[in-house]
Amino acid sequence: MPASALAFDAVTKRFGDFTAVDALSFAVPEGSVFGFLGGNGAGKTTSLRMALDILTPTSGSIVVLGQPPSRENAAAIGFLPEERGLYKKMSVLDTIVYFGRLKRMEAGAAKAAAMALLERLELADRAKSPIEKLSKGMAQKVQVATALVNSPRLLMLDEPFSGLDPVNQAMLEDLIAEAAKGGATVIFSTHVMQHAERLCDRLLLLARGRKAFEGTLDEARGALPSRLVLAARMDPAGLPGVARARRLSGEGEWQEYEVELADGAPPEALLAHCTANGVALNRFDVHRPSLHEAFIHFVGADPATTRQETVR
């Protein structure tokens, strides 16, 4: 098992009578891309702020890069806050350099890294522009650059795709993947499931401050049965591995059925049985659960706080 870049042990955070994070335990392996998923108010931002020593836990313990949260970790961490905030009169280049210097970078190294990021983000021609002259999406990309400028060992991004159009969302996904390939541990929060499906090695699903699930994408989706639709000349209810079958439609010799498989029964085994035993099939479609469906299974449906969007 790799070491943990971030670990929570029974962490609780209360604000008066309100419990924002409730006995939360999880570990983020070094070098992984870790999705912190939940609806608005699930406790994502509060948890990240405790990891950054902006907030202090009411109880429990946190370890960040091998030590308790403190400002001593700042040079090794990049952070994109949910609430964006840049100095409006400062130029794009000076803004990124300023954040690099806060992370203990030398001025020359910070400027070189900033220009490289601006090229990568297609903002090099805006290097001298004041922040106030940028569009919302451009300013968001500058904010991303401030989190990346110091090539952090641990990169924490709170709702990083908010405010970006599909093209720039795709660019940010590529940057996250590149940071991970370069050895960084990446943690990002989101409530748009497709980003996590494409990027994450592991996931944490949060609901009302508590952990609903932690594991891989395959493990999350594997908690739900696959949906299988087949067209056959016979009722498939008696076939091995079939828990139940519901007739959907069909006239004549071919009938369509929605088939629910028994726990652990793979669709491939049913197909192999039909092939080996001469069971004629005219259709065999497997729908594997999406992360969005797994999220609803573990957390519950809340249209106001969880979205499934076409982003690429």
UniProtKB/TrEMBL annotation:
Keywords of this entry: ATP-binding, Nodulation, Nucleotide-binding, Transport
Domain ABC transporter as annotated: residue spans:
6-233
Which Pfam family is an annotated match for this chain, by its short name?
DrrA1-3_C
Q: Does Zinc count among this protein's keywords?
A: no
Question: What GO annotations for molecular function exist for this entry?
Answer: ATP binding; ATP hydrolysis activity
* Annotated SMART domains: AAA
**Superkingdom field:** Bacteria
- Record keyword Lyase present: no
Q: Which PANTHER family match?
A: ABC TRANSPORTER ATP-BINDING PROTEIN, ABC TRANSPORTER ATP-BINDING PROTEIN NATA
Record-stated family: Belongs to the ABC transporter superfamily.
- What is the official name of this protein in its record? ATP-binding cassette domain-containing protein
Q: Which organism is it from?
A: Aurantiacibacter arachoides
Per the UniProt record, the lineage of the source organism begins with: Bacteria, Pseudomonadati, Pseudomonadota, Alphaproteobacteria, Sphingomonadales
